[in-house]
Design brief:
single chain; about 210 residues; alpha+beta; Aminopeptidase; 8 helices; about 25% strand
């Protein structure tokens, strides 16, 4: 599948409710995944803890959008086990060049310390992975991401699987049928991840309705 998979086929897979994975970074083969239960983030349901609010309000960081997409994907693969092989890395970087994939990045002292990336289509954001090199930085990126999605017209944030970590932040499981229903609706609507009218400060982010302390 690795040699046959293109960005066009990859996007069509997402539209059909499936996504590719590899058994490991050194495995050239890919397979499609269609879970019986799907993890999603309610667009306005991110749980913002007191400690995360403090991290956000320190203001010792910069938030950037897709300024170092390839670095974010590489950082997400820097773990003992990963589904990100060279084919996945190449294809998602190509999607980013086409404006169909984006990253939210946390920088401190010119160093990339946290981030999250995913694919966009219609009003759906398909989250792929996130990483943290300092305390709370992946959560910070996720907080900025969800705020952006909510305020730029997105209606679906797919997390693929529900982990205890994502659940603690507000993600939930839904059935495959429910996911496909929501996906069809999201693909019929338009959203603009790079909406030039969108902006947010840390103060506004931490006061957003729908977040809990």
């Amino acid at each position: 599948m690795g040699e046959e998979l293109s960005t066009k086929v990859l996007l069509e897979g997402y539209r059909q409710g499936i996504f590719p994975m590899s058994e490991g970074r050194d495995d050239p083969n890919l397979f499609w995944v269609n879970p019986q239960e799907r993890g999603i983030f309610p667009i306005n349901g991110f749980r913002l803890s007191r400690s995360l609010k403090r991290s956000l309000m320190r203001m010792d960081y910069d938030v950037r959008v897709s300024s170092a997409f390839a670095q974010v994907v590489s950082a997400c693969a820097e773990r003992s086990e990963t589904w990100i092989n060279q084919t996945i890395f190449k294809l998602y970087c190509e999607l980013a060049e086409k404006g169909k994939a984006h990253s939210i990045e946390i920088w401190q002292e010119k160093r990339l310390v946290g981030g999250v990336y995913g694919v966009v289509d219609g009003s759906a954001f398909f989250g792929e992975s996130m990483f943290s090199r300092k305390r709370d930085t992946s959560k910070m990126a996720l907080a900025y991401l969800i705020h952006r999605l909510f305020h730029t017209g997105f209606t679906l944030f797919d997390t693929q699987f529900l982990t205890p970590h994502l659940s603690s932040l507000g993600a939930v499981n839904i059935s495959r049928n429910d996911y496909h229903r929501r996906l069809r609706a999201a693909l019929k609507k338009k959203a603009n991840f790079l909406d030039p009218n969108y902006s947010v400060t840390a103060s506004k982010l931490t006061q957003r309705r729908g977040q809990t302390s």
